[in-house]
């Protein structure tokens, strides 16, 4: 079993309502049983946890996981890798 230090900080990327939806979906007796590849989760958290939530029927939370969790074990969040210049006023 992995320690808390390797678990994604879900409370930092999901609101309380989103956490409640996720917990209700996982705890519901007829929800699909979806396993997470632990090695993939450690190596590529964004992909693993995004795929997991997608398989559970929570596509909005899957997209949030894919963009806000680190793309790699030592990397930054996928959303942080955008290198496009700022297109706002004064750019």
Large-scale geometry: globular
Largest sheet: none
Q: Please, what is the average pLDDT?
A: 75
Distance between the termini: 48 Å
Radius of gyration: 15 Å
Give the tally of β-strands: 0
Overall SS class: mainly alpha
The domain count comes to 1
Count of alpha and pi helical runs: 5
Residue fraction in strands: under 5%
Low-confidence stretches: 82-89
Explain how this protein is built.
- With 91 residues, the protein is mainly α.
- The chain has one domain (9-77).
- It contains 5 helices and no strands.
- Helix 4 packs antiparallel against helix 5.
- The radius of gyration is 15 Å and the shape is globular.
- It starts with 9 loop residues before the first helix and ends in a 23-residue tail after the last helix.
- Mean pLDDT is 75; it is low at 82-89.
